[in-house]
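Hi R.,

Quick one: here's the Ig-like domain-containing protein sequence you asked about.
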Amino acid sequence: TVTRTRLTSISSDAFYNNTKLQYVNLRDNNLSMLSWRTFQNFNITFPLLLSGNPLDCVCENMWIKLRLQEDIDSPELTCTDERGETRDFATLTPPDCVVPKVELTPKTVTVMEGGDVKAVCSASGSPVPVILWTLDMPSTHYEINPLETKSTLTLSDLSPDDNGRVIVCSAENMVGQTEATLQLNILFPPTIQQLLGPERDHHWCIPFTVTGNPKPELLWYHKNELLQEQDYIRTMIHESTENEDHGCLQLVNPTHIHNGEYKLVAKNEYGQDEKTVTAQFIDPPNISPTDDMDYCK
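And here's the predicted structure, written out as tokens:
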């Protein structure tokens, strides 16, 4: 709440770090213009109270009309036109003042690792909007070719590390901002990133990390024989992301017969990978020859 302070302006990043605001009350100040950027992270369903300010009937304030169509303060909000006359904000229709529209094609892509993708972002609005890309692509090379009303993004040598990422294209002008998204589905064969020796927690666990898209099928072999999973020996996935599965082969109360070499095979339609690890849970019983003879008797 900032009221009756003769406040005349607010910077565009004033509330940038205030992510939990539930309302903003700026009534009865000297604000004539406000940028939508100041409130771009502010929930549109929360009250933005601006009555009692000498707001100008200009395109820069058009976003306020669009927002306050759903706001409790809109019936009493007014602005002053170029002739000095007071008008209801709901009637504000400045010329050449249109919120941007944006279209991004394609919206989703499915492509093998190492492939290329071209996306085109087209925008309209008045004034002519600026087109911006938001990318978080640590492993894939990209180039942007900007034009006035469209921008082309080219991704080269797609990396599995960028599977599942969402690319955002936004168009913005003084009236507001609109976004469109592109989702990457990058296909690649499995890789067993790690396969560790057994660890004991509540149960015994042979930890592993596996990547692959589509998610690979996991098969275990014990002493080169396919392991039939059941309640006491089974694969457990503890954490799963777009690219990786972290888990373990869980063994409940294993005995010496479970010692030996374990092989993990991960496979999908694009390939497979395998790794082995040796497990020693408990020492086998020490049976002497006389014990054998006594047992036979």
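The radius of gyration is 31 Å.

Cheers,
M.
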